[in-house]
Request: fold
Amino acid sequence: MIQKLRKLQFLKNTGLFNIRAFVILFTIYSFISVWLANVSTNKDLRLSSLTENLKILKSEYVANKTTLMNLSKRSNLIERANSFGFYSAEEPIIIIQLNHEN
Reply:
């Protein structure tokens, strides 16, 4: 008789144990899912921030490149040279090639 009661209690505890195991595993799964969602969101925010920084750097690059091109234009260089008393040649520049002595 005692053995029959033990068998019945064993069967009841097994069902309860399975529910507890399910609850524990589901809780662990939930924590992992929330953690991974948080990590993913943080990476997405960082990526968005880096994309914005990239846009800013590209616009600064274009602005600096434009400034450099304006400063190195021939007309701008001639104007700056005129302020120092230099003038551009009226005739085109002639390239003279010399044969070097050995």
